[in-house]
Amino acid sequence: MKIISWNVRGLGKSRTVGRLKQRLRDENHVIIFLIETKLSSEKMARVRSRLGFQNRIDVAAIGRSGGLSIGWKHSCLVNLQSFSARHIDVIIEDDSEGRKWRLTGFYGAPEEQYRADSWNLLRSLNQNNTLPWLVVGDFNEILLASEKQGGLVRSARQMDAFRNVLDDCALDDLGYSGPWFTWEKGRTHANNIRERLDRGVANSEWWDLFPDFQLKHLSHTFSDHCPLLINTRGAQSSIKKTWHFRFEASWVLEESCEEEVKRLWLNSGGEFLDRLRYTSSGLDAWFKKLRSEKRLTRKDLTEKLERLNNLIPTDDVLGDILDTKIALNFEMDREELYWEQRARSNWL
């Protein structure tokens, strides 16, 4: 099972929702936990439906702040236990063997003076728990001074309080792969701040249930937080899908499209239908190659972004990060047009 946790910093813009939809599609997720949606329950229901999730639990934003949402596919059974402005707690049954475990999406108070209330909430959720338990989200706190770079030095008292609550609840940090930080602000070296505020923690029973799990910090082009991907079964091979020919609206954005159609038609022979079949077959092959190149381009840009995020944030590096995000967004614009047409075709 794949789980995405992300502080999206608002879903009020259509383009932001489109970017989120692409990011989720890439990972073939089953459960999503979204933080700071900044939407009412009604608006969040429309967004979640656009993302492809019919099942959900939404906690409305208060004014223009907060808002939580858990969405899931019909392949797993999710039972709500409790919720608040800071958490959504559910029990999951995700396979035919009837194994049950607990998932808590958590959002720690951004204000330091209310952080103790967040830790007390976590302690209350831990009472009488007998299930494997995973807590994931934005805790708005770090465990170690090494998890912060730039800005003011974090108070040892604050970090101690975070470590104490994890000890009280018998929760251990899951670790990660990818860039070490999950939150960033500042576009120059002088004001750049990076911290690991988002994480997954679990009790020993959950570790025993999913010994091959993976947690990864994913790259992103919007929000100042990165998404967390938790795969309970570790790496899995992808399933290839059958390709069917169709003319895609995104092709007209390619400079080579018109010349390719002309070339294929002029090189074809025989009756009209034979020439049509030859041209469509050629376009099919051209598009497969084009898609492969685009995937490679997007993959290269994503990998470049990950490499840049691991470098010392000098002004030149931060400038390269911004340029790479712009280029990656441009590639996503092309792909979004492709998927919009496909969704419309499926609806028809």
UniProtKB/TrEMBL annotation:
List GO molecular-function terms, semicolon-separated.
catalytic activity
SUPFAM superfamilies for the chain: DNase I-like
Positions of transmembrane segments? none
Q: Name one Pfam family in it.
A: Exo_endo_phos
Ranges of residues in domain Endonuclease/exonuclease/phosphatase:
4-225
Q: Quote the protein name from its UniProt record.
A: Endonuclease/exonuclease/phosphatase domain-containing protein
